[in-house]
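INTERNAL AUDIT FORM
Audit reference: QA-55
Scope: verify that the stored structure record matches its stored sequence.
Auditor: D.O.
Record contents follow.
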Amino acid sequence: MAKSTETIYRHWRILELLPAAPGWATAPALWARLKDDGFQCTKRTLERDLEVLSGHHPLVVDDSEKPFRWSFAHKAQQRVLPGLTPAQAVALALAREHLGALLPKPLADSLEPLYRNADAVMNELGWKRWVEATAFVPPTQRLIPAKYDTDTLFLIQKAIAESRRLSIRYRKKWDDSAADREVNPLGVLFGGPVSYLVATDADGEQPKQFALHRVESASVVEAKRNVPKAFNFKEYARSAEAKWLHEPNIRLVLWIDPPAAEHLRETPLSENQTWRRLRDPDVVEVTATVDDTEQLRWWLLSFGEQLNVKSPRSLREATVSNGSGGV
């Protein structure tokens, strides 16, 4: 990195870290924060930076004791820095990669200048290599998500933002043709291969789920949407997830072939998991407090004959009837 460019980014970061009086920060504390952000400089360089910056910004220093205490002057005007910190740049890059599809298009478009700024900062400081060398691998079988029209999603988001109704043309799962209907949009559920619009019928109170990829068209209408009394979308989303729950907080006891059980040493099922090798028979006994969910049952069945559920009985019977339980 060019020395002048590094100095500019370092100065921006120092100014951002300095609190307004009566708050304060010492040079050693600022130096530690800079090192955490990937800046290469000595503590003496930082002290010179503070002296230089105090000539151009309303900084004050309390030199009555060491280390000196630095801050912005009390009630100093809010400063605007023309740059991003490394942490902000990396966060923007990850947001663009993992959250971009969730943002309404106008909002996503408005972030493009910030994304370009973030790319420039990461290129200068080397963090782009870190972003390119980091990936998330889902622990389950990946399915290609059903494709939905992004313009339709935007209209749904627009209707929610303006608290208005939607007119949609929707095709049910087993139907060959779509039908028109007016709905009150309540939210959108993401997170799996299929995303859903949650809405009530125009004069209804019961929330329903409409697969986004089967919404053939949508338009925002003038009428205000009706939201069921006491409806909370976050709670609804949690209840939708809870439909996968059979029983909470069960005490699970498993017998597993030693090679298959080895990974549970490093990635336990719960904080209170126990893991012990039994010599007769030669198995590993694992106990843990978990929720009995469909995801847990799928995971247990994936072991086939290598695993046997010893307790609870209800889960043992469910997995044995589906082909597990060979140990």
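Auditor finding: record pair retrieved intact. The chain has four domains: 3-72, 86-132, 150-239, 245-321.
Action required: none
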